[in-house]
Amino acid sequence: MPYKELYKQKLITIDEAVQKINSDDEIYVSVAAAEPAGLLSKLHVIKDRVENVSVVMILPLGAYDFYLKPEMKG
What we know:
This protein is of the alpha+beta class. The protein has four helices and two strands.
């Protein structure tokens, strides 16, 4: 199978990616321009479904709800 077709089969939306996150997961984030801003901006939508999700990042470029809002703790 050509690599482009294989690549297309593996693509998912940001919403689908966020739904794959489970309780007690650890998320390691790339730095600067490689930061997955779309994913990070949606993490708050799963707060009622998961707990104890750790996000490890250095110098975030965006202001994301998951670390700015006190109610997101835990």
